[in-house]
Amino acid sequence: MGNRFFAAIGGDAGRRDAVRQAARSDPCWQIALDLPECLVLVERGASRVALADGGLVIGPLFAIGRPGPLDLLSPSTVASLRASGGAGLTHGYWGGYVAIVVDGGQDHASLVRAPFGELPCFYAPSSEGWVAGSDVAMLERFGGFRPRLDWPALGDFLCAPRVRGAATCLAGLRELRGGDQIRFGIGEPVVTTLWSPWTFADSARALADGKEAARRLQGEIVAAVAARGATITRGVLMLSGGLDSSIIAASAATRGQDLHCANVSTDDAAGDERRYARAVCARLGLPLAERYFELDGVDLAHAAAAKLPRPASRAFEYEARRQAHRVAETAGADAVLSGGGGDNIFCSLQSVLPLLDCRAALDDGREYRRVAREIADLCDTSRWTVRRKAWLRSWQRRAPPLDTDTGFLSADAAARAQAASRHPWLAPPAEALPGKAAHVALLIGPQYLTEDSDPCAERRFLYPLLAQPVVELCLRIPTWLWFDRGCNRAVARHAFEAILPEEVAWRRSKGSPDAFLVALYESRRRQIRSLLLEGNLAAHGLLDCDALAAYLDDARPARGSGHVRILRLVDAEAWSRCWPG
């Protein structure tokens, strides 16, 4: 069951008549809302909650503190949501929803997307009105949208691939980001940010007791995994054996959920984490399927993100997912789960900034010394070095660094990098602590994990750790509490140490698929050279072809991170061949 949707907002009545006729002639679609201001189609069987006769919520919707998805809201709640254009959903609810609310008296319609919600929402102008939908195919079929590549936007994306704004890489198509509301009425639509991490990162809302923070974190994660589990029949968890995916396994086992696990490893020791995954499954009594990354499973000429308006998926990630989907097919599972984003929300910093936060917030020399010791152990350095770096850093006031990568881009494309990487979360309030600013900056990356989902996929791909209540709680935990026993992410470790094997709960090493990436690059070097130097990106002036040729023609083995960057450019090249322009 999918949650794809299309909305025609205002505009030509003839266009809406044509949409109605198309929907009525196809049993896969049904009309969910039919008002003069807005016509909405949904996939038959989609999750939805009606807002009386003035709107609906599409996709899974959960009330904070209550188990299971909602299928009904009280009349008073509906009235409140309609009055706010759906804004109230971002406060008392969470999920993977898009809400559409129509105010006939004001002749406008509002759309709200869940923070970190996996149901996309794109919009474009059309016939004196607007069209919105879950995917480009819906906008093409019902809205008359004609996709064309926006080459400057693609260059911006390649400069800052982990930073998302409203712009896509298709001309005229924009995206409503998670936690935002858009109002369509007279004139241009107005976008308002409803949810910001800084609301919860405020020092006034901090959870200062580490034990209480761990207890509450375990409760929120177990509840989020259970809520997501209630929307599927059976799930397959991509269990690396690292902390984050193991926490999801532990949470599911706590509630007796039907979960199978899949571990995908490389033939290199750094990418082989099977012993940790086995230990987790043995402790929890969960079935484990072991798979390997396969070079033959990667087709560099095929875009993993072919249906998306950005080249957001990577070829090697596609191979890991392909293996997980094979396990899901065998197990009869209808969803794949991942621990992606855990490093980010659990404050996986290797920095002295949390020590500065501790000194600024507490008058406690003993705690300051403890945190200095833990950071020193984590970074394998001396306490004196940590305290000296903290003292030097305390004299500097600077924003978190921009997350940009201009490697192998042309000078013109690289010149746009700073503008392309701007993000509202990177502008902290004046009173924000530096470590908390770094923690908030970490959350920018996971946005793309959930919000770049493909609603046309055969199985849903879910990230339970990025549930809104979990993220909000993590933001309230002071940064220095995340360090203990020479590890970061310590609050999460304490929360699940009684359930997980100790070698997993307090594991300090991390696996890496880099050996597979090197093998992929080395085995396809000639194909990569042809794809990039004779392809669309080069023809449109986005690449530094001289630098690329020099790197690709170097007979020495791959070194540094250049091969990783080149593989991302290959993904973008393959994606560009899926669209006109």
Automatic annotation (TrEMBL):
Origin: domain of life: Bacteria
Cited CDD domains: Asn_synthase_B_C
Xref: SUPFAM superfamilies: Adenine nucleotide alpha hydrolases-like (SSF52402), N-terminal nucleophile aminohydrolases (Ntn hydrolases) (SSF56235)
Pfam families per record: Asn_synthase
Reactions it catalyzes: L-aspartate + L-glutamine + ATP + H2O = L-asparagine + L-glutamate + AMP + diphosphate + H(+)
Signal peptide extent: none
GO biological process: asparagine biosynthetic process
Domain Asparagine synthetase residues, every copy: 221-576
Biochemical pathway: Amino-acid biosynthesis; L-asparagine biosynthesis; L-asparagine from L-aspartate (L-Gln route): step 1/1
GO molecular function (one): asparagine synthase (glutamine-hydrolyzing) activity
EC number: 6.3.5.4
Similarity section: Belongs to the asparagine synthetase family.
Annotated protein name in UniProt: asparagine synthase (glutamine-hydrolyzing)
